[in-house]
C-alpha cells in the first residue's frame, strides 16, 4: 500500500501494522486470546472510577465482560470451524463515540484483523478507550493482537478510503444513507462482503391497561434511556407511541407526566425547540389530522388520528413523539416498512408482534424488545448476526 | 390599516400605543394568511389556532410563530400565482436549501417604503449613492446568491445608485472607489458591507495601498459579520476607531435584518443599540419552553412584522440569539424596544445515528 504520504493519524497501531495486515492470519471466532483481551479491557474500564461519568463506556464495558462474552459464544459452539474473513474495514459514526469500539468487538470476536476509521471529532470516550487498548497491547499476553487492530483518523481523504476498501474482506459502514452512498462508490474486492447500517426508524407499542398496573416510574426511566439518552436520535429510539387497550387517555396522561419529570436534567440542544416545531409545521402543512401538544420545548407530542406509511419520515428527535391510539395491533402494519428497525413494547405479547411480521411478510423490523432495551448492545444488529456475516465456515464432508 | 403606521414617526410610539396598533394589525394579517395560504392555515390549525382564537389575542407574546427555516422547506404564499412580482431567494450558511419569499407588488413596495423610512430616521430621508464593499458577483451569480446577496438586494432601493467596491477576487477596485468619492464624497453617501469584509477588504487595503480617501460624509451601514471579527478580537469600538483613522469615517450604523422580513431593519443608534420600529417587534424566548425572556435575558429571537402580506411571515422564530436591553428609554430618544443580537445559536451537535462520513463534509 502506498499510504505513506497520506495524512493518517493512528490512535492504535501504526503504518507498519497497517501495511502488514494482508499477511496476518485470521483467528477462530471467539478465540480465547480475544476473549481474554476484551475481558481485560472490560476490567480496566470498570476499575477506573473516573469513567463513571460516561455511561456509554460503562455499558460497553459490561457488555464485554469475560463471562458475558463466553455466554455469547455458546451459541456458536457447535458450528465446526469458523474463521474471520480477514481484514474488516470499519467506518464508524461521528456522533456516537462508543460505536467504533462496538464495531471493533464485532470484528475481533469473529476472528478478523481490523481497521477502524473514526471521525475527526474528538470525544473523551474515544480517547480513553483507545488509550486503554494501547496499554493492553504492549502487555505480554496481548502483544500478538497488535497486528489485529488499527484505529485511525483521516479527514475526508477519498483516496485512503479507496485503498483501504481495496484490501479489505469486509466493510462495515455505520450509516447515514448519504455516507453509504458515497462509500459505495469505492469498490470492494470480488469476495468481500459489506454491511451498511442505513437510516432506520423505530416505534413503541404500549397496552394502556397493563401500563397503568405497572411501576410507571421505572418505565419512565426505561423509556428515557431509549430516547433522550441519545437525543432520541438513534435508529432504535422510538418516534411513535402506539396505544392499545381501553384506558388510553388515562395512561397517556400518566406516561407523559412521568416522563416530563425525568426531563429536568435533560439539556435540550439550543436548536431543538425550533427544529421540532419546524418538522411539525412541514408535516401539518399538508395534513389536517395532526395536533401539536407541547409541555415545554423538551417534550413535543404530535397526536395523529391515522397512520400512514410515510409518517415517520417526519421524525425529528430531541423529544418529538407521534402518538396514536389503535384499535388493534394490525394497524401498525403500514409502518413496518424497510426502514423500521425496532419495535419496543410494554404489556403487549412480543410473539404477537413477531407473528404480525410473518403474516404480512413485511420488509422491516429486526428487533422486538421491551421498553428500556432499545439501545442494548448485541452481536445481532439490524437483522445481521455479526459473527456469521464477518466469518466464514469451513465445511468438511 | 398599514397606512395608519405610515402617518406616525417610526420610533415615536411608547409600549402601550405600539402594542395596540401592532396587535390589531397582526390579527388581521394572520387571519388573512390563515384564509389565503392553505398550508399556513393547516399549520395553525395543527398548532391549535383558529380565527376566533387569533381574534381574541391580547398580548403580542400570544401570536403563533413559524420557524424561519420553514421558507426553505415550503413555498408559502397568500396571493394568487399571477400576482407574484418577485421571489426573494437566499440560502443561509447551512445546507443548500434556499428560502423563498414570495412578494407581490404591494408587499414589495411596502418593504421599500418602510426601509426608507427607518433608514431615514438614522441617516436622513434623501436617497443617497451607496458604495457596497462587496463584489458585484454576489448578486450577479445566482448560484452564490447567499444571505449576503439578499441583504444587499434588500438595500438596493434605499440607494440612489449602487457601486460595488470590490473585484471578483475580493481585492479593492481602487479606481472605482476613488471615482465614487470624487463624485459623491462632498455630500452625504452610504457605505454598506459586512464587518469582516470592511475590515479586510476595505480598511486593510486602504492602509496597505496608502490610499487617501475622505469618507467623513459617509454613513457606514453594516449588517452583521461580527462573529468573524470577534474571533480576531475586533470589537465594535476598535472597528469604529480604525474606520475613523484610515478614511475619516464618523457615522456608523450596524443593523439587524433578514430576508424573511425584509424592510423591517433594526438600526443601531448612536448609543450602540438596535431599535425596533413601530412596524415590528422582537421577543426573545427561552430555549427550554419558548416562554418570553425578561429584559436583559438572552433567548431565541422571535420577530414580528406587519409588512408581510403576500406570504405568512409576520411572526417568525429566528435562529439568532439576543436580548432586549430596554423599552422606550434609550438615551437616543427613540421609543420602542432596543436590543442586542448575539448571532446564530450554537448548532449543538446532536447525539444519535447520522452521517459518519458525508455529513462532516
Summarize the structure.
The complex is a heterodimer of chains A (397) and B (361). Chain A has helices spanning 15-20, 32-47, 55-63, 66-74, 99-109, 124-137, 158-167, 177-183, 208-213, 216-226, 248-262, 272-286, 350-360, 386-390; strands spanning 9-12, 81-84, 87-91, 113-118, 149-153, 170-173, 193-196, 201-207, 238-244, 290-294, 300-304, 320-325, 340-346, 367-370, 380-381, 384-385, 391-394.
Question: What does this entry look like structurally?
Answer:
The complex is a heterodimer of chains A (397) and B (361). With 397 residues, chain A is α/β, with parallel strands linked by helices. Chain A has 14 helices and 17 strands. Chain A folds into 2 domains: 9-198 and 382-394, Aldehyde Dehydrogenase, Chain A, domain 1; 201-370, Aldehyde Dehydrogenase, Chain A, domain 2 (3-Layer(aba) Sandwich), CATH 3.40.309.10. Chain A has helices at 15-20, 32-47, 55-63, 66-74, 99-109, 124-137, 158-167, 177-183, 208-213, 216-226, 248-262, 272-286, 350-360, 386-390; strands at residues 9-12, 81-84, 87-91, 113-118, 149-153, 170-173, 193-196, 201-207, 238-244, 290-294, 300-304, 320-325, 340-346, 367-370, 380-381, 384-385, 391-394. Chain A has a 7-stranded mixed sheet. In chain A, helix 2 packs antiparallel against helix 3, helix 2 packs antiparallel against helix 4 (66-74) and helix 2 packs across helix 6. The longest helix of chain A is centred in the N-terminal third of the chain and has 16 residues, at 32-47. The model of chain A has no long low-confidence stretch (mean pLDDT 94). Chain B is globular, with a radius of gyration of 21 Å. The model of chain B has no long low-confidence stretch (mean pLDDT 89). Chain B is α/β, with parallel strands linked by helices and 361 residues long. In chain B, strands 1, 4, 5, 6, 7, 8, 9, 10, 11, 12, 13 and 14 form a 12-stranded mixed sheet that branches. In chain B, helix 10 (195-208) packs parallel to helix 12 (236-247). Chain B has helices at 2-6, 15-36, 38-47, 51-55, 70-73, 105-123, 137-140, 147-155, 174-184, 195-208, 226-230, 236-247; strands spanning 66-67, 84-91, 98-104, 128-132, 159-164, 189-193, 218-222, 251-256, 266-268, 274-275, 280-285, 299-305, 315-327, 337-344. The chains are: A alpha/beta (397), B alpha/beta (361).
